[in-house]
What does this fold into?
Amino acid sequence: MSTSYRFWFVVAVCLAVSGLAAAGTAEIAAVQGKAADARTPNEVIGETRLATRSATWPDAKKSWLQFDLSDLYFKNPGLRGHITNAKLVFYGAKSETGAKTYAVSGLNDSANLENWTAAALTWNNAPANDTASPTALAAGLTTALYTGTVDVPCLDVKSETPEAARAALTDFLNTDTDGKITFILTAGGTSYLWNVGEALEPKLVIEGAIAQSYECEGVGIPFSAYAAVSCRVEGATYANTNRTDSSKLSVRASSNGVKSWIKFDLRELGIDPNNLKSATLRVALHAGKGGSQTCEVSAVNDNYRTNINWGETDITWNNAPGNDTSSLGLLNPAQTTLMGTIAFTDGLAGQQFFIDVLPALQADTDGIVQFVLHNSPNLLDFATHDHPSGAEYWPRLDILQAPYGADKPYPCPGQVVPSTLAGLSWANPDVNDINPQICPTVYLGTEPNRLKMDSVLLPVNAESVLINTANFPRFGSLVNKQTYYWIVDCRNEKTGKVIPGLVWSFYVNNNEAPVVEAGNPQVLWGLPKAVALDGSVTDDGLPSSSYTVLWTQVDNGAPAAVISPADAEDTTVTITQRGDYLFKLTADDGEAQGSDTVRVVVGETPCDASHLSSGAAYAPGDVNKDCIVNLEDFALLIAPNWMDCTDELTLCQ
It folds into this structure.
């Protein structure tokens, strides 16, 4: 089975600076699983799928399935023991004509039997198995969790922990102490097979305060170095001639052939090649170049020592380290290693390019590192180590060395987190001891000074700590709009040596809902009417710099109107019937929403719009409702019935 897990978020977390979510979901794939067969109790069976069967003895099978939550706990210090909901997901692997039942039990941590391996699992050695029973397990070593049913059709159909049983499963997970969870599947009187393939992997779905999973970049000790020397060399008639130039490093795999060498001297920096995270070579164009261009960048192998002490005024085509003197563009493959290719279109003078050269730095043993620009179809000119335009043009190495102490901090340095951040986590250093005993001391405060921070000494090999006032009395309740600093010092109990940690920081900023203005109310007349809605949104930039907007019509009894576009702050609504309308603008930043409404009244005439807007009654004599009582109203009231007789007895005689 593959070892992997994927994250889905119930509540979106901060994107650029994700912290712990109020509620999140982690979907963990099983790390190993195997069925055991009572018919061959001492053999590892060949069945690649999980199986359950409780037929006539000894025709019985049970299956063991394990999940590893240690990495999830590492990234979410507050999750262990605080899972809020969980379920198991299986996929059927056999067509059946009737529903199948199965039972799920958990292997108790107290049994100390989590170190089983699928490659060696048999009926007789399977942890907590009752080898004399087709369905039973050893009493006291397991916890019965639930019974489920495989629905028909069975093939590839998903079966999940029943809703009513999820509390029991969740409670069991919250008893875990070592990050390893083993479930045992037994049959409820029937037999069945379960898939274990990539697409239909059994999964453990966990809900709780779960953070986004990502690796911190740029965490460590940075070094930068400019090239000590550089020079171009040219073949053919100049093979033994030094072609130094104070401004350009030329490259061309045609004509006479031109290649350029760049050398760095890192001996005084004290870099540990065995402890590097990244190394990047930066070069810049001396002159612009139009069209589509490429150039290869290679390193001279560390074990190639010939003419390693070349200088700017003595290197030539024939003595340049690692050069293939018979090729206009290529190098000697036994003496050099390709690092990467520079590619661009219509390059400009001063344009910078970055090449990953970490393998060359990791292989270095003497502090002298050499690179070659070569194999460009067209003539390209890059800047030298002493280019007159200055340091932005000079070749440079940027190197990041991993800390000797604690590493992989969470939150990442500079990260923005909510005040509900549950805890801190890190990776303890590898001190190359057998069974090292690392005792971390964690400092937390608002100043980067251990003397002004709270500190807590943690148990051996701990790699996370909860943020609370028990651990950090003064700083355990995070305050909004505040920068916090933290340090992890690691003491090796075997040697007594303390490895001081780097100072890391994070900023607390609780995401606030966008502030929305839907615009001023409008009273208009004349139909049909195209009404401009002028909305505006102000956001705090969390969890990201983007947000979405949506205009909707509030159902207040007015006729339907058409909004287009509905997803822009400024939009137009087309109204074809008189009415008192209400429109709402909603902004969503991924975590929080803000909204505002605007009233739009549209009448057939100004008088109609006025009364729709105010709700005032018309004057008693305003028969035609034109907002003025005059002879027109008199005529409408009297003239249509002038001289009409309503005396049916005498006919008004």
Summary: Residues 582 and 599 are 5 Å apart (CA to CA).
